[in-house]
Amino acid sequence: MAADIRFTVLGAVQVLRDGAVLPTRSPQQQALLAALLLRSGRAASAHELIAAIWGEESPDSALSSLRTYAWRLRQVMEEDRAAPKFLVSQGDGYQLLVPPSSVDAVRAEELAAQALRARDAGREAERGRLLNEALGLWQGEPLTGVPGPYAEQQRSRLSALRLTLLEERFEHHLRQGRHGLLIPDLIAFTQEHPMQERPYGFLMRALYATGRQADALAVFGRARHVLAEELGIDPGPELSALHSRVLAGDPLLMGAAQDQRPDAAPPVQAAPPAPTAPEPEEPAETAEPPSSLPVRPAQLPADAADFTGRASEVEALCRALTDPTRVALPVVSVTGMGGIGKSTLALRGAHQAKSDFPGGQLYADLHGNGLDPADPAAVLGSFLTALGIPGHSLPAPTEDRARLFRTTLDGRRILLMLDNARDPAQVRPLLPGSADCGVIITSRARLIGLPTTLQTDLDVFDTDEALSLLRSIAGARRVAEDPEAAVELVTLCGHLPLAVRIVAARLAARPRWRVETMTSRLADERLRIGELRAGDLGVAAAFELGYHQLTDDQARAFRLLAAVARPSIGLEAAAVALDLDEYDAEDLLESLVDAAMLEAPLPGRYRFHDLIRSFALQLAAPVPAHASDERYDGEGTAALDRLLDHLLGRACAAFQSMVPGDPVGAILGGSLMTGPPFGTLADARAWVTAEFDCVTNAVSLAARVAPATGTRMLRTAADLLVAFSPFGRDIPYGQLAAAARLVAETAALRGDDQAEGRARFVCGNAALQNTQLAEAETHARLATDACQRAEDTVILRQILNDRGLVAQFQHRYADAVDFYDRSIELARELGHRSGELVTRLNAAQARLRSGRAEEAVSVCEEVLTELREVGDPHGISYAWYVHGMALHELEHHAQAVTSYAKCLEICAAARIRGREAQARFRYADTLRAMGKLDQSLSEGERALALCEELGAERERGYSLLALARGLADLGDRPAALERARQAQAAFARLGLPDADQAEGLVTRLLGGAIEPVNS
Fold it and tell me: 302 — phi, psi (to 5°)?
């Protein structure tokens, strides 16, 4: 890519390479580009970018749209999109690595800063050139047509910068004596921007210098009228002083080279002398600092000697505070949960930046996390006395003290650190008015509404940072002795800096303890919070400060969701658990996010930090008698009951989308109404994927509290597992099986045959999908017995089908046909047409493997006709698959290819990837039999890649075997041998008899046989 790539935002958002405009497409894509360009090279998370583009009401598709926009920008900007140099991924977000000067807005700010230095050095010609160059960069309204709150904020900021530059150029022209030429432009400017005071002054000076004193006075009258009418204020002291000088006919105003800056205006004494009658006592807010040299405060607490990590955050903080191009007060806000290290980071940044603030540093702990936050008036009093203002002269009202504070700081470079702020109202009076100062604020909640230059939302340490802090306090040798235990220890601490500091301090105080000693003490979640205490440090104390600030409704939600939002929970499910409508629930949850007691990793999704969850679980009432290890009171049980019913309703709707017409969906939950249907199967899959972790947690929780809640909750949990079972390829099925084992064991202890049978069915089905045949057979046998006792015929039919598959995989084809026939008989009794048809296909596959391929072809063709009436894409794709296998066995290879092609077409349309993998390796075998070896190898490789992506080990073995045969036919014995050995190893690991077939191929290849190998 050519080096000359430039970006414009001062007008339409454009990307230019060598002067040519590149396409930036949609306004939202331009919004993403602008959000990255105007962050000065800093990375932005996906959450920040979504908020920047769409605000608080982002669409459900926001994340996928964001990825699409980034991909399109890379198409435009990058030479190699696979290895981007400009738009790079950072975490779940992005960072734009381009030279700052390539962005016109950044260039304008640089020129503004250079013009300011030129003015201070008296280089007026250079100043004028720089201002003209900066203003020439504007091509219209900044970020023209770009939507989103971030663009609107930046549009306002850049428009304000342009007004400042125009004012600076007016002043420059006045200094050069161009009074007459300026008057038309100044008249137009004051009419267009009537609230800007400074240009009125410029116009008055220009008119007065050209002999139009009356017009100059009229301008002041108009300004006073506009300000009074629109804002309810009088003109400021600079404009009023200028009015007095014009009124007095001050001859100094006629000079061209006079320093025209407001801060250099001649003193008011140049106006006519005031009467000598006694004047009323001046109000306290006009108190002046002592005339001696100003006091230089140095109030920053000491920096942390063991400060760890956060290098990029510290660098960004210092850069924002000391940016030489700034035109407004730099305010840096650091937010995050208790114990995250906000104050430590802010202090490190303040100490590194303080050399840029020779006027000193002011510090205040605002106690915003406690029950008695600091009064801004008291803080201002402390600051003003530290700056040399006598305490007896301080005004009482907060607003008066704030004005005096801003006056005292004007012209001084002082750094303020406001620690533990509660809200914007507490902070606002404490902000200086001068861009020469700098402010660092820490707060648990985002201070929305404050004019922040940089917002830093701190996250927990990564593992390396946490281990580094552990080493620096507990000792590097102890960590090196047991590195695995050290990683486990910081993980149990949730990577929270305060928690890591506490365990490190405890280890340092006990030289005989090993790291694993501390790890074992934290292993029990119920005791973990109590262990995280050392001296006056405690994780619980940090969390209690935040908890006691919650309202009753917030505290209730915080307690109720702690157990069920593991690891996270969607808004809809949370609203049900809280027994609220979604609108009220969202307000409540977002307020907990603002209070840093809850996290929102994605719009509409919420989670607890692990330690905050442990803290919240300890707040609930004791566990009911005989319940297990979750702290769960009556209200918590009711919340779990509501959540399980809601999840089962949505899961039943998803089940019907996946297997329409299956009678299993009708029996789940008894009389529970199914939730509203999903629009498409893709929608159902998306819901299942999103809520999977929440479901497995709710099911496990139900199994633990079931002894105290009766059978209904346990049965709901078992039904929820069954409803998720058709989505085995979309979810971590092993995790679902672990929850199912817990439900099955609890149900067996309680003698609940229905819940046990359904949970055992899920356990066996999961084992079958992972080709753990012995385990699958055990669970299926136990499930059969339980379902027969409970007369749960619908689930029994499913179990018999699974037992047929186990037998078929073990090459026990007669047993397989027997199980299938029993399942088909039950399906007919139940009127389960689609289930009957699929099981008939399973039976057809078992029959063709036992030499009855013609019979299998007939069954497939019969079933296909019926499946088309049902409209089941899974069943139809399976029928074409088995049809192709049977035709291959009959050596009708061309017809088999047609059947596989039809199967693959349906799989692609319905996203049935597991079946696609199977069809491809069978297709490869058929192509090899037809002598089309290159095509055969290509299909085999595609099948292998797909199997490895899906983690389908059995199908991977068959793909490897198909490749080995094709390579052998091609005469590539070494490659064929490698693939055959890989297939043999895969089948052996799974305990499948197909390992013998692979071993036979290996033996023939080792013996030098390279003639065509039969399937």
Answer: -65, 145
